[in-house]
Amino acid sequence: MSLQLWTYLVVGATFALYIGIAVWARAGSTSDFYVAGGGVHPVTNGMATAADWMSAASFISMAGLISNMGYGGAVFLMGWTGGYVLLACLLAPYLRKFGKFTVPEFIGDRYYSQTARNVGVICLLVASITYIIGQMTGVGVTFSRFLGVSSETGIYIGQAIVFAYAVFGGMKGITYTQVAQYIVLILAYLVPALFISLALTGNVLPQLGLGSNLAGTDVALLAKLDQVLNDLGFGAYTTSVAGSKLNMFFYTVSLMIGTAGLPHVIVRFFTVPKVADARASAGWALVFIALLYTTAPAVGAMARLNLIGTVNTAVGVEPDPAGGVRVNADKVKANADLLAPEAALPYEQRPEWFKRWEKTGLLKFEDKNGDGRIQFYNDKTKNEAIKAKAEAAGLKGNELTVNADIIVLANPEIALLPNWVIALVAAGGLAAALSTAAGLLMAISSAISHDLIKGAINPNISEKNELLAGKIAMVFAIIVSGYLGLNPPGFAAGTVALAFGIAASTIFPALMMGIFSKKVTGSGAVAGMLAGLFVTLFYVFAHKGIFFVKGTEYLDLIGGANSFFGITPEAFGTVGAIVNFIVAFAVSAVSKPVPAHIQDLVESVRVPKGAGAAVGH
User: Fold this and answer.
1) Cβ contacts of 98 within 8 Å, gap of 6 or more
2) How far apart are CA 126 and CA 504, in angstroms?
3) What pLDDT was estimated at residue 225?
4) Where exactly are the transmembrane stretches of this chain (predicted)?
């Protein structure tokens, strides 16, 4: 059966499953729509949370980023996983005990301020909308490659599928659909990883294969990858760090606290019956998330070796005519000259996967020296010996441009895996993007209908009309997200980082101070959120060129690129969070004290019922 037919069958079957679940689990009340009636089992909620958590960024981009960055890519593993631990331990149980539908509702009640609630809504909307652009883009890329349609058509189809199960099903439909999407995406991620690990190392578990020797040799996979990348001028895979160690630390923290502050995951903990269930579902979600996150480093390393081996015949990892990849032990041990012109694969002999991905524009070849071969190396290396060697070999620069987002999606094709595995990966990529898109749309919808319309505009709105408003808001959010996916803003490359930065600098500090401090006032919280939002947007937008100051270079506004101690805009959410905390406490110190009933509320949320009773406190 052809790859195209397999893809249509597998993707079509998963879409039919999602819609069928939505029809079965459609929402009939505001409780169903916002929090799935509050009766989701912890294991089910853990699986749905994992699907909500693992977006297109986790499924499609993370292994690609690790593959390109090497050791430095650990910021994503540490940041996103650490963020979940922060959320599970420091936020989720307390917010569930508070018992409200949304994050802005907690902020408004805790800080006894409608203004604080409205600022929370604004921060939530900006973070969620910027984050959803990446999901819709992932949907478009996956459709355009695997279903033979344009990325625009793919986004339209994705909008229709999300509409079918999110608008009618609400959180109840989204929850059970996300369970199915988790099963699809984790199988799609693990199955090709198992195949490739077995072929390269003889070890079926990729987590163990990453630390093993290449099959039939005494050469470690990571040692070979280090040697290959060093020879091509990229730097050792196991030690490479992008930027300074300070920036790496700030980047990791920004991802951690930004992840913990993303509202579409926080709201998942409102869907379980009890606080104990919130803790249990957090534990289950960590188990389900770990299956993918512990596999990603192996996928990234093996994909990088496979990719280079495909276009450079001297590497020793090559396609097997019988199917899959194989290790050529003699070539692995030979340590041949990887920059020799004859080592590069002739363009006319490029494999079928290469031709298919060229059509997407995410893989590009430019024959700079006119020899008809694919020279892939780092022509921007600072290693003068590599530069001299390349020049002596007649190379005129790197000729292959590889977008990091294709690594996971193309990996099964590079390894010549069966068509059904490739089709499964397509379905997994779509499941990851759609599951998170649905969660984000739910957060946007509830913020508009519950926090703005019911909370500020019409407090007396009936449940029926509030439910209708929620569905209309969902439709509006789907249209806006689709439009942004079709027409991404000029700073689209930084939208995901911007989403994490906004959540890190606004929502996370507000929640932490709201739970663990009885001294932060409403005016302090508002001032802190606005200060954190402003400094983060200012720094990021200055780098992305969004300011329109006549006669002024954008970066001049902040003293040059990465001018604040070498911190990149992707890592600046940490600075924004620090500013938020400082401003909030400073303003609170000169404000009227927090009312006694609010202090009692904080105490009741944080301290277990009956605590201290045995000792008379």
Assistant:
1) 106, 109, 110, 605
2) 12
3) 93
4) 6-25, 73-95, 116-134, 154-171, 183-205, 248-270, 282-303, 420-448, 468-486, 492-512, 524-542, 571-590
